[in-house]
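Regression test case RT-17, inverse folding.

Input:
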């Protein structure tokens, strides 16, 4: 099959879950004999091929509200002007206004709807309304919807009476004993707590830092991440930190980042709206003991292997408990690794391959869900609710 992947920053994966999915699934589809075209934003220094995938580099407006949409619009126009693919996967429900262009060319398309984007704190009222409308358009104009977590699948079922293909991300397998590079950051194995997240309100970095600072923790809190559009939130997080908090910014060296996960005494995961989160999967793949913000998506991944928090006081108590009993944390880390075995990239790729084959065989659907919401009191107001 000829499969196009649209709507992400592209590969190599340097940013988030979509890009990791495109890289891991795309290269495996190539290995299975398919032609894979990936639309990428900007940087043509990578060349026109990566791990067997053909890359198309197109520009984007560097403004938060327009970056994704401007690039996706150019990508769809480029796509329909070339040889028709057998199937297209569009990542991010925000791109749903462009689906009719694909439909007009009779290109079958699946939309990966991601998480509850309208809940993200970076969006104002207009942005939230747009994302709510885009969800409905994705339901109306997609030939299939992809959910990466059961909570997201439940949301689309309850909200729109729409079925989804449930395809989670994969978890990498990371050697928990390979920790030889921690010294580059003046860290020692099991000698720090870790957070890896973009500086955005729904990732609750401020809550984690505040709770940690309230504790009598002896080990530092290492914070990895940056904020491309959130200067005010970064200032808030920084203002809460004391001299035990080490703000490292973004780390793009994947080997070093993997060792940070594997060597942590605890990994504190504050994400709350994005479905199955790749950073969380990477943490359990490294057998890191995880304490996570208490939402359905995180409980789905961690189960009983996780500890959960919702307030700074919860974080204070969990950090204190971890330092009092490091052996118990190591046992939790082993349990995390057992959970990671459920998330295998080969299985994920097989699911995408089957979905694309189904789309290619059936073509665009004549009858789709309406896209109308089912109830005045929306499931959206409940799923993923804090606490």
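Golden output:
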């Amino acid at each position: 099959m000829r499969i196009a992947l649209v709507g992400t920053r592209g590969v190599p994966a340097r940013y988030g879950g979509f890009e990791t999915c495109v890289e891991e699934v795309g290269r495996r589809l190539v290995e299975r004999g398919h032609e894979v075209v990936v639309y990428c934003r900007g940087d043509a220094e990578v060349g026109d091929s990566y791990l067997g995938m053909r890359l198309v580099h197109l520009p984007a407006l560097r403004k938060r509200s327009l970056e994704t949409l401007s690039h996706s619009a150019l990508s769809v126009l480029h796509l329909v002007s070339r040889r028709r693919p057998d199937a297209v996967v569009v990542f991010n429900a925000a791109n749903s206004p462009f689906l009719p262009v694909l439909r007009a060319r009779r290109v079958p398309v699946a939309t990966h709807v991601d998480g509850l984007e309208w809940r993200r704190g970076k969006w104002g009222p207009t942005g939230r309304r747009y994302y709510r409308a885009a969800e409905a358009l994705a339901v109306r104009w997609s030939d299939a919807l992809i959910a990466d977590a059961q909570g997201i699948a439940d949301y689309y079922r309850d909200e729109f009476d729409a079925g989804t293909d449930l395809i989670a991300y994969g978890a990498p397998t990371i050697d928990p004993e390979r920790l030889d590079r921690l010294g580059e950051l003046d860290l020692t194995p099991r000698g720090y707590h870790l957070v890896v997240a973009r500086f955005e309100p729904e990732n609750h970095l401020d809550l984690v830092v505040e709770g940690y600072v309230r504790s009598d923790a002896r080990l530092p809190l290492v914070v990895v991440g940056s904020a491309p559009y959130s200067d005010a939130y970064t200032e808030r997080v920084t203002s809460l930190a004391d001299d035990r908090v080490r703000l490292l910014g973004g780390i793009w060296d994947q080997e070093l980042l993997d060792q940070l996960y594997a060597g942590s005494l605890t990994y504190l995961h504050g994400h709350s709206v994005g479905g199955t989160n790749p950073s969380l999967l990477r943490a359990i793949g490294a057998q890191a003991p995880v304490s996570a913000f208490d939402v359905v998506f995180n409980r789905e991944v961690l189960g009983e292997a996780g500890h959960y928090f919702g307030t700074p006081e919860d974080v204070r108590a969990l950090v204190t408990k971890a330092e009092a009993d490091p052996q118990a944390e190591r046992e939790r880390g082993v349990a995390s690794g057992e959970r990671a075995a459920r998330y295998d990239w080969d299985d994920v790729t097989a699911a995408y391959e089957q979905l694309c084959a189904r789309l290619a065989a059936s073509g665009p659907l004549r009858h789709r869900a309406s896209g109308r919401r089912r109830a005045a009191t929306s499931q959206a107001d409940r799923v993923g609710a804090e606490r």
